[in-house]
Amino acid sequence: MEHYDKIYLVVYGVISWTSAFLLIRKIFPKRSFDFSNRIVSTIHALFAVVLSSMSVQDWRCPVCPLASNSTPVQMRALSVSLAYLIYDLVCCLFDKNIKIDNSVHHLVSIVGVVAGLAYEKCGSEMMVTMWITEISSPFLHLREILKELGYKDTDINLAADVSFAVIFSIARMCVGPYLCYVTLSADNPILIKAMALGLQLVSAFWFFKIARMVKYKFVKRSASKTKSS
After folding, report:
1. Residue 58 contacts by C-beta under 8 Å, 6 or more apart in sequence?
2. In this predicted model, what pLDDT tens digit does every residue of 201-220 receive, in sequence order?
3. pLDDT of 131
4. Please, are residues 74 and 129 in contact by the beta-carbon 8 Å criterion?
5. Hey, is 225 helix, strand or coil?
């Protein structure tokens, strides 16, 4: 894939994600900035899961071949996700509630994807990374969207919380460490290895925050039922 084509795809992608956000703001003018951004993020998550699934070369070993040259399909998938990450990072800066851990995650992901596009290697590993990092995202955004729609502290919101926590934990803390290990073990560029380790550390940090969140939800729900009875 030519260098010019990658830049074109990324620029076109940033414009497309931004246009989608502005359209959603137009459709839901009374909803918050975060609400519209989360709808865009959900659309990207679905795209990312589909694109990464389509680019897997061998489902018997999704990370194979290790440290191989990226295919054109994999490069296009990375370009689409890089465009989204750039758009979302800018959105986070415009949001009133800037989260440091989220910004660090975006920066680590952007550097990792840029490295993958620049070296044109590690395509299989990056597609699996994209899959495991985005598979839980629709539930992450659904739980916040439900809160804004007035379903906070309801059964459906709790179901979204638990679904997100379970899928995140399996993807990031079961599959993630194995993926990090094979990426570090294979003959990949040092920058890609560093970003793989950084992403796994960020995932571990989020895992403990999510575990605390779920525990708080169940304790709060139990206390509420005890009080009402």
Report:
1. 64
2. 999 999 999 999 988 888 88
3. 96
4. no
5. helix
96: CB partners within 8 A, 6+ apart: 33
pLDDT above 70 as % of the chain: 95
Cβ atoms of 33 and 84 closer than 8 Å: no
Residues 6 or more apart whose Cβ sits within 8 Å of residue 161: 143, 213, 214, 217
Map tokens 């803390």 to a residue: 173
Contact between residue 128 and residue 205 where contact means Cβ atoms under 8 Å apart: no
- CA contacts within 13 A on the Cβ side of 175: 19
Instruction: Please give the residue that has the higher pLDDT: either 86 or 105.
Output: 86
Torsion of the alpha carbons at 96, 99, 100 and 101, rounded to the nearest 10: -160
Q: Closest by alpha carbon to 175, among 218, 132, 124?
A: 132
Burial 24-40 (b: 16+ CB within 10 A, else e): bbeeeeebeebbbbbbb
Tokens of 16: 């497309």
Residue 100 has pLDDT above 90, yes or no: no
